[in-house]
Design goal:
With about 140 residues, this protein is an alpha/beta fold. The protein is about 30% helix and about 15% strand. α2 runs parallel beside α4. The N terminus is likely disordered.
C-alpha cells in the first residue's frame, strides 16, 4: 500500500506508509518524516528496516534530530511514527549522511528559531549546490 488513512481502524487520523512500496521510496523517508510533523495525523513509516544500514542509521538519526526539535516521535525497529508537531530550532547532526543533512535543512525552515546542522557539508555528495538552491528559493 502506498499511503493509507487508518482513521477507521484506530479512531483517529494516521497516515501510514508500509509494504512493498517502501523499497521504492527508501531514500525519501527522512524528508517524509520531516513533512509528517506538518500534516494532520502525522505519519508512520514501517517496513523500512533497510534504513538502519545506509550511510547512517537513518531511522535513529531522523528520530534523534526530530526529538531535538521537540517533535513527537516514536522509533521502531523497522521505522518510526512522527506526530504533527511544532518544530523548534535546535542543533542537529547530519551523522555524515547527505539525506539527513538535506531533510533537516528543510526542517529548519519549518522550525521556530534557528537550526544548526553539524556536518551539513556532506549534502554535497549528492547535491553539491543544495544550500545555494535552497537559499535562492527561500530568499525570494
Amino acid at each position: 500500500m502506498v499511503v493509507k488513512d487508518h482513521s477507521e481502524l484506530n479512531g483517529g487520523d494516521s497516515n501510514r506508509i508500509d509494504g512493498p512500496i517502501v523499497a521504492n521510496i527508501i531514500d525519501e523517508v527522512p524528508i517524509l518524516a520531516v513533512f509528517g510533523t506538518q500534516v494532520q495525523g502525522g505519519i508512520e513509516i514501517r517496513d523500512a528496516g533497510e534504513l538502519r544500514v545506509k550511510e547512517s542509521d537513518r531511522i535513529a538519526a531522523v528520530a534523534e534530530n526530530l526529538r531535538r526539535m521537540e517533535a513527537d516521535v516514536e522509533e521502531f525497529e523497522d521505522g518510526l511514527r512522527v506526530g504533527r508537531s511544532r518544530l523548534k530550532g535546535a542543533t542537529v547532526d547530519s551523522f555524515g549522511d547527505h539525506r539527513i543533512a538535506m531533510a533537516f535543512a528543510v526542517a529548519g525552515l519549518l522550525a521556530e528559531g534557528e537550526t544548526e546542522i553539524r556536518g551539513a557539508e556532506c549534502a554535497a555528495v549528492s547535491f553539491p549546490n543544495f544550500f545555494d538552491v535552497l537559499s535562492s528559493i527561500t530568499d525570494e
